[in-house]
Amino acid sequence: MDSLCNLKTLILSQNVLNGEITELIDVLSGCNSSWLETLDLGFNDLGGFLPNSLGKLYNLKFLWLWDNSFVGSIPSSIGNLSYLEELYLSDNAMNGTIPEALGRLSKLVAIEISENPLTGVVTEAQFSNLMSLMEFSNYRVTPRVSLVFNISPEWIPPFKLSLLRIRSCQMGPKFPAWLRNQTELTDVVLNNAGISHTIPEWFWKLDLRLDELDIGSNNLGGRVPNSMKFLPGSTVDLSENNFQVPLPLWSSNVMKLYLYDNFFSGPIPLEFGERMPMLTDLDLYSNALNGTIPLSFGKLNNLLTLVISNNHLSGGIPEFWNGLPYLYAIDMNNNNLSETLDLSRNQLSGVIPPGMASLTSLNHLNCQYNNCRVEFQQQPVANPGRSIHI
Q: What distance in Å separates the CA atoms of residue 328 and residue 15, rounded to the nearest whole number?
């Protein structure tokens, strides 16, 4: 035991460990003076409740318990870890609450509690003295909401976040006003957060440079300015909302753009492909877009997926395929596009996307002089005038 008392770092991650950790923590915390600063038990199969004795590891700076099977609440004794800088508890089965004592940890920089079915209500008390906090993540893929954020709109946080990732938590119905002084954000995820109404003007005026903006699966609407700034390789997700404005034209740095299930209207801007040439994924499914497909789509040289189905687009399909060497998924269904698509002499290879079988207005598909094959998973819609040239 004396030798354990002198430990500063204990790393036992990825060792297929199982069982509970109460005995280990009791031993480590039973020292007259514990020097332990780093405890890494991540990526094992450890379970049970987190013991209160964790709060006796007074010199602990890094607590990494992610990817295990812990249950219950975060113990209130964690508020005694005044030197704690990183708390990683993601990917467990913790189904309890977040204690107010967490708000005492003035040196805490990162909180990662994603993929836990945590319950209860979070108020400003859990953040009250987190002066060093830069990253907070509570991200759940499931749409089921079990944790509620009830933070006063008048509250001014003592920290400046760079990363905020919250998904499948109740934060609405209004856009969280406590973000109005968060001028250093680079990642903003407020997905499936029960937020409605419009995004306030003060958010657009924060002059952020974002790597990720994800406010999908809410009921947001209102203005979406072109002035938003994004870092190289960024992702923007405004899907499943109520935006009823023309398509925004953002920074050339945006790589993934998801605007599906909204009411974006008007034509796709003619210069779209020139203004956003780094796009790899573009999903405009189920909006109210009209007009033609712009020829500038041929400038999207990195495009992998293109989804523009369920709109009111019309006219021909431009022959811009030479400029899209990596494209492997296309969906143009349920528009008013004309009947001919010529993909010949483009060095295409692989399987023609099955979705093309549903293009009811497509009468002539020409893929000659490529290396394509047809493996339609459904029969093409019957049309006696239809022809496919491979």
A: 40
The closest of 353, 300, 341 to 323, measured between CA atoms, is 300
Q: CA–CA separation, 141 vs 165, rounded Å?
A: 12
Sign of CA dihedral 249, 251, 255, 256: negative
Q: State yes or no: cis peptide before 173, omega within 30 of 0.
A: yes
Q: What are the 10-residue block averages of pLDDT along the chain, 390 residues in total?
A: 80 97 94 91 98 96 98 97 98 97 98 98 97 98 95 97 98 96 98 95 95 98 91 98 94 96 97 96 98 95 97 90 89 84 63 59 66 57 50
Ranges of beta strands (E only) in 238-348 are 254-258, 265-267, 281-283, 288-291, 305-307, 312-315, 329-331, 336-337, 340-342
Contact 277, 254 (CB under 8 A): no
Count CB atoms within 10 A of the CB of residue 325: 12
- Cα 74–Cα 80–Cα 84 angle in degrees, nearest 5: 80
Supply 305's token pair: 């997926």
What is the pTM assigned to this prediction? 0.88
At 42, list the tokens: 């991540």
Q: What are phi and psi of 60, to 5 degrees?
A: -65, 130
Dist CA 113 CA 97 (whole Å)? 11
Give the integer Cα–Cα distance in Å for 227 and 213: 14
DSSP code, position 252: T
Rounded CA gap, 13 and 91, in Å?
14
Let me know: does 306 contact 330? Beta carbons within 8 Å: yes
Asked if residue 341 lies in contact with residue 362, where contact means CB atoms within 8 angstroms, the answer is yes
**What are the residues whose beta carbons fall under 8 Å from the beta carbon of 231, sequence distance 6 or more?**
186, 209, 210, 211, 253
CA separation, residue 71 to residues 46, 183, 294 (Å): 10, 35, 53
Count CA within 13 A, CB hemisphere, residue 208.
Answer: 24
